Amino acid sequence: MTEGPLSGIRILEVGTMLAGPYATMTLADLGAEVIKIEPTTGEISRQVSDAYFASLNRGKRSMCLDLTVDDGRRVLGELVADADALLVNLKPSAIHRLGLTYDALRKYNEKIVCVAITGYGLNAGDDPAFDYVIQAATGVAALTGDPAGPPVLPGYSSADNSTGLTAALGLLAQIISGRGGQIDVSLRDVMLSQLNYHASAYLNDGVSPVRRAGGAHSYYVPAQMFPTSDGHIALFITHDGFWRSFATEAGIDGFWQMAERAQRREEVLSVVTSTLATDTAENWEKRLKPLGVPVAAVRTLPEALAETPEVVVEAGGARTVRCPIAVSDYVPRYRPAPMLGEMPTPHSLVE
């Protein structure tokens, strides 16, 4: 085992709940030293559950600082002087008030990279911007669910998780540049960016995205969820080779070209739906996967974890899902989430 690719990188985190802590935990998994700065009462997600906190904070160290007082800000300056980056996700007004920006901290370290995760931008105000609110505000919810029913929110925090990874990328990009500076990442902009081809179709061709049954793709047909005789299955046919393999196994004749399938969408979906109803989701997966057809029967999370035990790791007694980034010749040390204030502040360290 070698050192992680981010060994020697020190990152300070003033984060809450999900987006910020997930970003820095991923960096910690890759070898960075992450110091989580918390109030004496602890970061709020400690109150959710031990498992929740562990899932976002393994491998970090915790230091308690009161950033609302001069002494706390002085200690923060000492930490910044010896750090590579500071990642924050708070309201913009709090970030500015507590001096957690590059302009406020560059006097301690010209090369410090300051990353701010906010709802709408560092200078865009304090409107509440939780994950589900952003999904509703950016069009994600409007595209999700059955077209005959109400908009639906995905069952997990897609905006927070996506923003955390985006912020981690921005942080590393600026560190690699060798320059300090301010990185501004908002949940709103990340989700609008991830609606890429939908946004492009509207901006360039005036085509507004619509909610389709089964979560159907805008361009590929068939590419969506289908009911079977027992359970549901996701089928994702993106080119004619996949279609030939699927159609031959399913006993469907015709629709051999992608353009034809798109033009005759409803006919294709009718035939595919009736055909898939003749067997179970489990059996269709067994029949189609060996042919290379992109397909999966719908599983619950417990079922998925049972099938992939290798992704489950233990960090100080808490079982979590491993880092998704596999680096050759490196296996992360999954250390537990920190006890509150376990790391002494610089001025109390013994020389």
Overview of this protein structure:
By secondary structure, the chain is of the alpha/beta class. It has helices at 19-29, 50-57, 70-81, 92-97, 102-105, 131-137, 158-177, 187-194, 196-205, 240-250, 258-263, 265-276, 281-288, 301-307, and strands at 10-14, 33-38, 61-64, 85-88, 113-118, 181-186, 223-227, 232-236, 295-297, 312-315, 318-321. The strands form three sheets. A six-stranded parallel β-sheet has the order 3-2-1-4-5-6. Strands 7-8-9 form a three-stranded antiparallel β-sheet, covered by helices on one side. Helix 1 packs across helix 7. The model has no long low-confidence stretch (mean pLDDT 96).
- DSSP helical segment count: 14
End-to-end distance, in Å?
32 Å
Oligomer: single chain
Strand content: 5-15%
Helical content (DSSP H or I, runs of 4+): 25-40%
What's the number of extended β-strand segments?
11
Outline type:
elongated
Order of strands, main sheet, comes to: 3-2-1-4-5-6
Note the main sheet: 6 strands, parallel
User: Helices and strands: which structural class?
Assistant: alpha/beta
| Alpha carbon gyration radius | 24 Å
